[in-house]
Design goal:
The complex is a heterodimer. Helices cover about 20% and strands about 50% of the residues of chain A. By secondary structure, chain A is of the alpha+beta class. Chain A has one domain. The N and C termini of chain A lie far apart (about 40 Å). Chain B starts with 10 loop residues before the first helix and ends in a 7-residue tail after the last strand. By secondary structure, chain B is α/β, with parallel strands linked by helices. Helices cover about 35% and strands about 20% of the residues of chain B. In chain B, β10 (about 260), α10 (about 270-275) and β11 (about 280-285) form a beta-alpha-beta unit. Chain B contains 11 helices and 12 strands. Chain B has a 10-stranded mixed β-sheet with strand order 1-12-11-10-9-8-7-2-3-6. A two-stranded antiparallel sheet of chain B has the order 4-5. Classes of the chains: A alpha+beta, B alpha/beta. At the A-B interface, α2, α3, β7 and β8 of A face α1, α2, α8, α10 and α11 of B.
Chain lengths: ~150, ~325
């Protein structure tokens, strides 16, 4: 519900921060889905599209909104490097607003390119079966595009 | 419990490995940790090689291979092996070799008239390389006779109860006709009942209990329309699973099934892990393309249903 409220808020007011072409949440596409592309290309493509995640600014937070995950997260700039900016991020993953896990990671941004390396820890809870009994942890990466970025 | 989704049975080893390793290595490890399937069942008796549910297919199966067949009841309550509640006009024809023009519903014909009027196995659009052996439908009693005399010697029979609302007898009648025949035949073969509704599975569970017959029940999921947009149904279910509005564990528990057979287009590894954690057996199928079985063998599932009989084991 937190995610839904935040999504409604940011959709009306927040600008687009980036689009994660490969999202770090739930982060299962590269590990679970991509190896299956030979056996079921259509389903794999659908899984990929469902994980594409527009991320919106919502005050001090950002809200990622994909079919597979809605994630509310805080992003803290750590340092400016010669070739980009490094930030830490921590967020709550939801499935259509139902909190199911967390996300912790580091992101690096240079011009229009956004990359991150994170750990995704989440339960298999769903709206149809809201039980948080089984958990999984995955290392994930994210690849995103930052709109309107100025190339120096 | 904290475990890598692909490594349910060895959580500590997998967790430490995947957390420490780079993503590419983690991908390999997560895939490699999964146990292979224990069983691969010949779907529709090996539909990729021979006409589905046919005498030819049944007789050519190697001994010891588990076999899947579909059954419906004819008008006279005789079970008959067929994948649909009607004769598929693309796979069947009249005995004179003419195409089927009007739908032939099994519920409206007696078994003897079905066998005397039509033959199937002419051609299979889904498996154009499969042998074509036009032949009459196989009655369930005939299958039982083949099991009894050893003509067909599978390790288990996975019988899909093709009960469908409005075009089948009552599920209690369906369960009684099939299971009482099975008990009388006393083949000694393991029986697994598949159905795509909890109503049908529960009817079989109840009848098996009265007959003191041990069976395993498997929910075929998701339920697809017999005709029309299967693609649309699978798309809707796939999106529902991803978003969390559809839950496969809930579906299996609602049906009271021992295990669940998930169609490959909607199967997700996270759901497979949740099913195993809930103590529900997991199967995936039917796998109809050559690339399917090798891909899904790496998943932590108990059973695969394979159309190619050479992959059955």
């Amino acid at each position: 519900m937190i995610g839904l409220l935040a999504m409604v808020h940011c959709a009306s007011a927040g600008p687009l921060a980036r689009v994660e072409i490969v999202a770090d949440d739930p982060g299962t596409f590269l590990i679970h889905e991509l190896p299956m592309i030979g056996a079921r290309p259509g389903a794999t493509l659908l899984q990929g599209l469902a994980q594409v995640q527009p991320v919106w600014k919502a005050g001090p937070l950002t809200v990622g909104t994909s079919i597979a995950a809605i994630t509310v997260q805080g992003e803290l700039p750590l340092t400016t490097l010669a070739d980009g900016e490094l930030a830490g991020l921590a967020g709550i993953q939801t499935r259509l607003g139902l909190p199911v896990g967390t996300l912790l990671g580091l992101s690096w941004t240079r011009d229009a390119l956004w990359l991150d390396l994170a750990a995704s820890i989440r339960a298999d809870a769903s709206w149809a079966r809201p039980e948080w009994s089984t958990w999984s942890a995955l290392p994930t990466i994210g690849v995103g595009w930052v709109p309107g970025a100025r190339k120096d | 419990m904290l475990a890598d989704p692909g490594c349910q049975d060895v959580p500590l080893r997998c967790l430490s490995t995947t957390v420490m390793a780079p993503l590419v290595l983690a991908t390999v490890v997560a895939s490699g940790c999964a146990e292979g399937p224990q069983v691969a069942v010949a779907w529709r008796a090996g539909a990729a090689a021979w006409p589905e549910n046919s005498r030819t297919a049944l007789k050519r199966l190697p001994p010891g291979v588990p076999v899947h067949v579909d059954a419906f009841l004819a008008f006279d309550r005789q079970p008959v092996l067929n994948a649909l509640p009607y004769l598929d006009e693309s796979r069947c024809e009249t005995l004179a070799g003419n195409p089927i023009e009007e739908p032939v519903w099994l519920l409206q014909e007696e078994l003897a008239s079905l066998q005397a009027g039509w033959r199937c196995g002419v051609v299979d659009p889904a498996f154009p390389d499969a042998a074509t052996v036009p032949d009459s439908l196989v009655g369930f009693d005939e299958l039982l006779a083949m099991l009894a005399d050893g003509t067909v010697a599978p390790s288990a029979v996975h019988l899909q109860a093709g009960w469908a609302p409005n075009v089948s007898h009552d599920p209690d009648v369906f369960a009684a006709e099939l299971l009482e025949r099975w008990v009388r035949a006393d083949t000694g073969v393991e029986l697994v009942i598949l159905a795509d509704t909890g109503l049908a599975l529960q009817a079989f569970e109840a009848r098996a209990k009265t007959l003191d017959l041990p069976i395993t029940t498997t929910l075929l999921w998701p339920r697809l329309p017999p005709k029309g947009s299967q693609w649309g149904t699978e798309l809707g279910v796939g999106l529902g699973v991803m978003s969390g509005t559809v839950d496969v564990v809930q579906a299996a528990e609602d049906a009271g099934a021992d295990s669940i057979l998930i169609r490959p287009s909607v199967a997700a590894r996270g759901e497979v892990r949740a099913l195993r954690h809930a103590g529900i057996g997991v199967a995936i199928g039917p796998l109809t393309h050559p690339a399917d079985a090798p891909a899904f063998e790496r998943w932590p599932v108990d059973t695969l249903y394979v159309a190619d009989p050479t992959e059955a084991r």
